[in-house]
Amino acid sequence: MSTLLKPNHIGRKISRIRELRDMKQEALAQALGTNQQAISAIENSETIEDAKLGEIAKALGVSVEAIKNFSEEGVINYFNSFTDNKGPIYTYTGNYCTFNPLDKLVESYEENKRLYERLVQAEKEKVEYLENIIKGK
């Protein structure tokens, strides 16, 4: 049976949202701390208790209401809203990078350098400690 025949089949709605999020049952199971068989059972259930539904919604990154109100038609309408031809084909939305990627690269390099220096210092201290133990015998 499809979700069209059973519009309140929560398990199928969860399954569809999971698929749209490009998530496997195993990934959802890991996020919930359970196994894939439990997710399969959930997706085959017509109803789910609210506490469990809240956990699933959080793991999927959606609200409980989004799961309860999910419909294939709504998804299609949502994506069709991006392709209506009422305006120009390309509209600049003002999205731009708020940081300089080269600055981030330099920061990363400097952090790695500091970590390497700490590692070298720790190794020097370890060698000195072992030499003192050997001299003490």
From TrEMBL:
Protein name per UniProt: XRE family transcriptional regulator
Highest taxon in the source lineage: Bacteria
Xref: Pfam families: HTH_3 (PF01381)
Domain HTH cro/C1-type: 14-67
Lineage, top ranks: Bacteria, Pseudomonadati, Bacteroidota, Flavobacteriia, Flavobacteriales
UniProt-listed InterPro entries: Cro/C1-type_HTH, Lambda_DNA-bd_dom_sf
Any GO MF annotation of the entry: DNA binding
UniProt entry keywords in alphabetical sequence: Coiled coil
Coiled-coil stretches: 105-132
